[in-house]
Write a structure and sequence with these properties.
Layout lengths: L1 H14 L16 H4 L13 H4 L13 E14 L9 E8 L2 E7 L8 E24 L9 E25 L4 E25 L6 E26 L2 E8 L3 E16 L12 E11 L7 E10 L2 E10 L2 E7 L4 E2 L6 E2 L3 E5 L2 E11 L4 E10 L18 E12 L2 E18 L16 E17 L1
């Protein structure tokens, strides 16, 4: 029984690792910049430069209002053998995709300098998973025959991070531009994990297990992105530095409720009941982001333009997102904690893109970029992050319609990772199921459909 409870709980918290908040290049901005996978640090040509390279804006001849609205994204996750051999777990969703809006201000006193405002979704994820089993299983050795078993696991996860930024960009000369975007970032995140199992043996009392863990928090912080653009036509270059964020404030709550009764864990003939319950509200929140350094370039050759970019993100040492007070277990008297912590490793992403100019009214674009996971293998932090690497392939076309540009495109993102999946809720009393540790493969796929406008 105890073994079954442990593997069920392990399954619950192994599955929540499949969020996507350990990726830095998971969302792209702008119209053509999206088709180029965001690999435009040194070759950005629209107001998505407020994010990709603020220094390049002052080199633009004109910078108009830009609205990038990816209409829908379709995402699937498959866990091969996720609930036992031959029992896959699947999740799919169709949701509106994050958007990006930017426009510049035209003031005479700015001279050749440029001032722009942008708002973007930096990270976003919504996920819900539920599974339950009601059956007769032989899970208690001391009870002859099979027991009535009822159990369920559920996970709900949601977070959203939005950046609003003010950009200032100025020319050093006709070739070099410098700029910076001051961002204010607002992050909200909530999570609920629940495992409830009850067993009615042929003799004895009902055995039950309840584990409910939840948290939610909001946080406000600020950071700066500095960029330099260089125009050596037909070659363009760019470099950016993103500072660590400075915490402004926020708060959250954490709840832990763990109950176990009717179980003899140590074999002494006495049930070992567990009762741990704690909830803390109005806990001060802190969220951190690291240094990042990016480089890129573009080169025009005839009807083609080639783009390449790379960006390094520094590691984040372990920190407390919600630093709660220790509490005393009502059952055992032990001192316990339910802190929410986070840490990330250093990663470097890179990407390549290409444009083909077919006349004055049509541009065909395509790209490939990496999006490596910053999750630290074996980390004990409990702010969920994904373990797999993601690769993005994008393509589409930009059409000239009067004085406006219309962009249509498609992005395909994919990734997978082999994991040890410790769950098999087929009958554990069956000798054929004695080895309940199975190898699983997690596969994720996502399609994004883009419609963008430059006015």
């Amino acid at each position: 029984m105890y073994k079954l409870l442990v593997i069920s709980l392990t399954f619950l918290f192994s599955f929540v690792n499949y969020a996507q908040d350990s990726h830095y290049w998971n969302i792209q901005y702008g119209t053509r910049s999206t088709l180029l996978g965001g690999a435009v640090i040194g070759s950005v040509s629209d107001l998505s430069a407020t994010y990709y390279n603020p220094g390049a804006i002052s080199l633009f001849k004109d910078a108009n209002f830009i609205l990038s609205a990816r209409v829908y994204q379709f995402e699937t996750i498959n866990v091969e053998n996720g609930a036992g051999k031959g029992a896959d777990l699947n999740f799919s969703t169709i949701v509106p995709s994050p958007s990006f809006v930017a426009f510049d201000f035209k003031f005479d006193f700015l001279g050749d300098a440029r001032l722009a405002f942008s708002i973007l979704t930096r990270q976003k994820m919504e996920f819900e998973f539920q599974t339950r089993l009601i059956d007769s299983l032989d899970v208690i050795d001391s009870s002859p025959g099979k027991e009535n078993f009822a159990g369920g696991l559920s996970i709900q996860r949601e977070f959203n991070e939005v950046w609003g930024g003010l950009t200032y960009s100025s020319k050093i000369n006709e070739v070099i531009g410098l700029g910076a975007t001051w961002y204010v970032a607002y992050r909200s995140q909530r999570s609920t994990n629940q495992a409830i199992i009850q067993i009615l043996p042929t003799t004895g009392d009902i055995a039950s297990y309840t584990d409910i863990r939840n948290y939610r928090y909001t946080n406000l912080r600020t950071l700066l992105k500095i960029g330099m653009g260089i125009n050596l036509n037909p070659l363009t270059l760019g470099a950016t530095i993103t500072t660590p964020s400075i915490n402004i404030g926020g708060s959250g709550s954490v709840g832990t409720h763990f109950f176990l009764n009717g179980i003899d864990n140590d074999g002494d003939g006495i049930n070992d009941n567990v009762f741990n319950s704690n909830f803390q509200d109005d806990v001060t929140s802190e969220y951190k982001s690291s240094w990042a350094v990016g480089f890129g370039g573009g080169y025009s050759a005839g009807k083609f333009k080639f783009h390449a970019s790379a960006e390094w993100y520094a590691a984040l040492s372990k920190f407390f997102v919600l630093d709660t007070k220790p509490f005393v277990s009502q059952g055992s008297g032990e001192t316990l904690t339910n802190d929410l912590t986070h840490e990330l490793k250093s990663v470097t992403n890179y990407g390549f893109g290409i444009d083909y100019f077919s006349g004055e009214s049509l541009i065909l674009s395509g790209s490939f970029v990496t999006d490596f996971s910053a999750r630290i293998p074996g980390t004990k932090t409990n702010l969920t992050v994904s373990t797999w690497d993601i690769y993005h392939i994008s393509g589409g076309a930009t059409f000239k319609i009067g004085d406006s540009d219309l962009t249509l495109g498609l992005e395909y993102a994919f990734g997978s990772k082999d994991i040890t999946q410790p769950i098999n809720i087929t009958d554990p009393g069956n000798n054929e199921n004695a080895n309940i540790i199975n190898k699983s493969k997690v596969t994720t796929r996502r399609f994004k459909f883009l419609i963008g406008f430059i006015l």
